[in-house]
Structure formats: C-alpha cells, structure tokens
Amino acid sequence: xxxxxxxxxxxxxxxxxxxxxxxxxxxxxxxxxxxxxxxxxxxxxxxxxxxxxxxxxxxxxxxxxxxxxxxxxxxxxxxxxxxxxxxxxxxxxxxxxxxxxxxxxxxxxxxxxxxxxxxxxxxxxxxxxxxxxxxxxxxxxxxxxxxxxxxxxxxxxxxxxxxxxxxxxxxxxxxxxxxxxxxxxxxxxxxxxxxxxxxxxxxxxxxxxxxxxxxxxxxxxxxxxxxxxxxxxxxxxxxxxxxxxxxxxxxxxxxxxxxxxxxxxxxxxxxxxxxxxxxxxxxxx
Amino acid sequence: xxxxxxxxxxxxxxxxxxxxxxxxxxxxxxxxxxxxxxxxxxxxxxxxxxxxxxxxxxxxxxxxxxxxxxxxxxxxxxxxxxxxxxxxxxxxxxxxxxxxxxxxxxxxxxxxxxxxxxxxxxxxxxxxxxxxxxxxxxxxxxxxxxxxxxxxxxxxxxxxxxxxxxxxxxxxxxxxxxxxxxxxxxxxxxxxxxxxxxxxxxxxxxxxxxxxxxxxxxxxxxxxxxxxxxxxxxxxxxxxxxxxxxxxxxxxxxxxxxxxxxxxxxxxxxxxxxxxxxxxxxxxxxxxxxxxxxxxxxxxxxxxxxxxxxxxxxxxxxxxxxxxxxxxxxxxxxxxxxxxxxxxxxxxxxxxxxxxxxxxxxxxxxxxxxxxxxxxxxxxxxxxxxxxxxxxxxxxxxxxxxxxxxxxxxxxxxxxxxxxxxxxxxxxxxxxxxxxxxxxxxxxxxxxxxxxxxxxxxxxxxxxxxxxxxxxxxxxxxxxxxxxxxxxxxxxxxxxxxxxxxxxxxxxxxxxxxxxxxxxxxxxxxxxxxxxxxxx
Lengths: 285, 536
Fold this sequence. Notes:
The complex is a heterodimer of chains A (about 280) and B (about 525). By secondary structure, chain A is an all-alpha fold. Helices cover about 50% and strands about 0% of the residues of chain A. Chain A is built from twelve helices and two strands. In chain A, helix 4 (about 65-75) packs across helix 7 (about 130-145), helix 8 (about 165-175) crosses helix 11 (about 230-240) and helix 10 crosses helix 11. Among the domains of chain B are: about 35-295, Cytochrome Bc1 Complex, Chain C; about 445-495, no CATH class. Helix content of chain B is about 55%, strand content about 5%. Chain B is built from 17 helices and eight strands. In chain B, a hairpin with a 2-residue loop joins strand 5 and strand 6. The chains are: A mainly alpha (about 280), B mainly alpha (about 525).
C-alpha cells in the first residue's frame, strides 16, 4: 500500500476534488502519498491516545517491590499459575485482575502455595513473611490490577465512637455469613470436601481481604454489595463478639457447634458421671 | 396451777398415735415402708429420668416467671450490646432478658436445657436396660408401651421447648416442622395452616407451643410417669436370678430407711450433675442466633440429639418425588412422617410380638441375662445401630467439617451404613451371645481354669480345672445345670487364691491373705538356682 496508484483512482468530493484543471500525474501521486501518510499518522495517533493502558505494561518497568515479587513468583508460584500469572489449565487459575488483596489473603494465611491439589487450600503456617507477601501482592497488582485493601488500614469500627456498629455487624453477619460459617463462627461443611473455615483466629485484615476477594469457595462481597463501612461492622462483630471468647454460659462453649456437641456432652459427661454413680451406690452383680 | 410435765421422749409417739387414730395411716404406711426393692446399679437408670423430670419442673416454673410467650415485635434495649436496637419478638426479647438481666436466669435456663437432654438420654439408656434384660415380658408389657409413649412425649416437650425462645435456630426447626406437616399428602396444608394459624410462621405459634410445653405435655408426662411408677409398685420390681431369688419373691432392701436414703442421695447426685453441667458448659447460646428471620439459616442447624435421628433420616433419603395426578408425595414424607410413625409405634408392640413368637405365656419376674436370648440382643443391637447411624447422619455436616471428610462421602456412608450396619450388628451380637453362653456351659461342665499346667509322665501337658460341683468316680466333674446367673470363671470367685479386691479405682479394703495350702508351703529363702547357659 505504499504506492499511490490505487488511491489515485478514488474520486474525492472534498477540497481537492474542486480543482478545475486536472493536476499533473506526478503531483497527483505526491498528493496521494501525503494523504496516505496523514491518514496513517491520524489512525496511529488516535490509537495510541485511546488504547487500554494494560497493553502498554509489556514495555513499562515494574516497580522495585514488584520486581522482588516477580522473583518470588517465578520461584514458587509459576508452576501452577504460569508465566506472567496467566494460569495453567488444570493446575491453577490466571491471576490477572485478582488484585493484591487476594494475594495478601491467600499467601498471608499460608493457603498459597498449596500443599497439593484438593477441594480447597487449607490454612497453614505462612510460607512467606509479611514483606515477601507485600512484594508478591505488588507484582500481581502491577501485572493486572484488581481489588486492593484500603490504604488507611482501618478494618474495624471504634465502638466508643460508634456503639451501634456491633449490633449492625451482628445483623449483617447473620444475613451474609452464618449460612456457611455458622452462628458462632465455628465454620461449616460445604459440598465435596469444601468447607467454610472457622473464624476464631482470623485477623481483621484477613477478614476484610476475604470479603473483598471471595477466596476459594467464598462468594465475593464487593464494595457494592457490602460497603466498606458494613465490612468493618461485620469485622467488629466477629473480632469483638465471637473471637474475644464471650461465652457467659460457662467455661466451655463446646465449640458453639450447637446441638451436636451438646448431645455428645450429655452422654460423655452427664450419663457417664451418673452411671458411675449408680455403680457406686448400688450393687454390681 | 400446776404445770403439766412434758415428756419429750414420748412426744413423737403420742403425735404418731394421734395421726393414726385420725387418719388410719399405719397399715398402708407399714406396707409401703417395708416394701422391698432389689438392688442393682442398672435399676437406677430410670431414676435418672425421674429425677431430671423433677429438675425440669422446678427450673421450668422459674423460667415461666420471666418468659413472655408473645410474637409481638419489639426493639431490644437490654444490656447485650450486640443486639441493641434490633427488632425481635417479645418471646426472644424476654429470653434474652432472662439470660442477661434476671439473676441466675442464664444458669436456670442452662439447667433446664441440660436436664431436658439428660431426661431423654436416661430414658434411652433405661429403655436399653429394660429391653436387653427382658424386663418388658409378661406381666409388664403395658409398662413398656407407656415407657415408649413417655419417650415420644419427651420428644414433643423437647421440640416445643426448643422452639419457644424464637431465636434463629428454633425458627429454623419450626420451619422444618412445618415442612414435615406440609409433606403429608392431601391433609398437609390443612394441618400446617391449623397449627400455625395460617401461613408459616404467623403470630400464634409461640403462644400455642407455650401452653403445650408448660401445661399439656408436662401434664401428660406427669400422669404417665405416675402410672409407670404405680405399675412398678403394683407389679413389683424385677430382679436378677441368683441364690435365694425366685420368680415369686423379691430379695433386696426395704423402702425405709436404706432404699429411701439411697434414692435421696441419688437425686442429689443427679441434681448436682445437672447443675455442674449448667455451670460449666454453655448450651444453646440464643444471643448468637439472633431473632428468627426466614432468610437467615446457619450452617450446623441441628435439632437436639433425640430428634437428630429424624434429621439424619431426612438427610439420607434420596430425592424420590412421587407424582399421582395433581398430587405429589415429597421425599420428606417417608423419613419424617412414615419413619417417625413406624419408629415410635412398632417398638411399643415388641413385648407382644416376642411373646407370640416364643409362645411364651409365663409370668416373668426374673430378668434374663442378655446372652440367654441372643435374638433379642441381636434385634436390640440392630435397632441401636440404625439409631446411631441416623443420629450421626443428623450431624454429618459438623462431623464432615471437623474431621475433614467430604460431606457427600458422609451422606453416602450414612446411606450404605443404614442398610449394612444393622444386619452386621445383629450377626455380631448374636455370635457374641452364643460364644458367652458356650463359655458358661464349658465352665459348668469342666470347672474353672486354674492357670496351672501339669506335665504328665508321658510328656503331655494338660491344664488343671477346678470343678464347681461334685466329681464322679474318675475325678471328672459332674456337669451342672445353668441357673441363668453369673458362672464363676476365676479362681478367686470360688474362694481360692486371693479374693477379689473391692473398690473402683483403688482398693477400699485390705486384701485378705491368700489361703496357703499346707501341702505346698510358699517358696522362701534366697533363690540359689543359676541361669542355664551354653557353657562357654
């Protein structure tokens, strides 16, 4: 398309077409070449101006933190999540767009790297320290964007300023969370070996990241479903009411699993004590 | 005026005489106080149920003083900050007030709940004792049936009580109950609508359940418990066979003072155990459940343990929906309505079924050792296996979660277990019974194993047995008849060697000296023998 010959046959009704006398052949060719160049420059310019920024990341430099993260990624994560976090079919999903919040939840609680492929990654001792987790998160964030934890680091409500937050958090917890995690936050079973973990030792940051990113089998509670304020209220309820061992009913809360452990206790403790009592006060055989 | 002398030693006598002259109490009282009860630990299991029922009445009366059985909507303004400002029913609000504001209220609530669980648990344990020892045989068939009805009434009392606080868990239970009613073909919608006064949940159910829970069901329980105990008095308690015990006598302790004192002490023990559990173990934390909302269902929502077998059967039932014309029978109908109906009525008739099968028209006041009726033990083991699998399946989500098992695997294990384990339990328990019977007969025929191995001159080894009875001319024991009671199987049981030391965890008496045979004095002095070596 460098030659002007096909373009020269076009009939223009623009400014150039208003000429009375036909221009010379050489002039026509020159004009066509100039117009071609101008059109190309325009198209290219418009494209460059409006093209999505992600595409340009190929050439932009990762920040220093992200570079460190990439190092860690290429050592520990690449086997399943693939080069540039694009995912490997049958092994691990693409991490483009999951955001640093997701990385901080999965890596920070030791769920990733996984021990083995199974229904759900288990919480275990974290394999990376806090700095390394941040670096990995930064890498994934710069790679594909996605949800991030709030930068102010405020995950709970101050009950002195805002005492109603606890009750509101409780209501939201019962509406949104108990169907899997249970009334007492003790966790519960899902289908085929999946489960909702207990919330006894989850930190406010972990809880926030979990709601924001919906890890494993948990649904995503994005900011349009639960506003950041509501998230903080839920976290306040969990950390204040459920985690601080507020069991007015006795020394042992039986895991707050309800009638299952209560039934176990009545046979294991009540009936056992009383059968031994009968053996003590009455004849044996 | 001369003061009349009061003889204090004579006072009770004159008082009792006065009472007797007016009310003629001596004759019936003498019979009652002298009534003899046989003594065995397993006869006290039913008392646990009786005593927990008394605790239930006492704590229950306390709870009614503060509970408001109304579904009127109120906003909570109490001290429990995590629910402050939340809209809830007056029933739930008063349950919270009872728990957090009434002095000792939470303790009483927990005592009531633990006593309820203990009531049902001891009924089941007591029932097992009655069943496996054949105590339900003629003339006590009716009392067995009354016992089964008592279990059923306890079941209903427990369910209505579970529903009263109107918290998230009890509302979920009520929803399931309404679904069970709705599953009954043709009549279901009418039954549900009449009980709930319209569509679930309505505004009436708590008030209706309240009157059932505090008046109708306890009234029924009290009446039937009276009949149950009255029949035990009238028909006399069964006893184990043994020396001096026959089908026409009762060997044991008099009602007064020993038996009455023991029972009084046992009541204290039951009361103490329930109070201990109520103080140590948190039960039914309603404040975490929140007020009932149809949209909020927690994981691990279970009924109390004695209803859990039904929940388990419902969880295990495959999804088989039957369509007949315009009507449909949902799968829930089979386990929850047919299953519960069959599981509570068929056992009621077991005494008559067994008597008919064995053509047994005798009066039995002596119990049977379980091993002497292997088939009955087999049936009992089969039922228990069924109940256990169903109950565990009722909590299969908690088991799956805590033991890291797939919930689907738990469901299938329950389905297969429900069909396979009961017959297996039947087979194993029948074989165990037959084995125990055989060992009893063996000891009666050959004597007790002494543990002494004798080497004969020809090199043969043989074990020496101690005959239990007389021997014939050749020194062989004459086989003895089985008496339906424990056969001594150890030398110390027949008075040889040292007697068994009494005491449960540590000896409560100094063990007597072992008898020494004059022919074989005990070894004394230093052992001079040397170790045998190869000589190198």
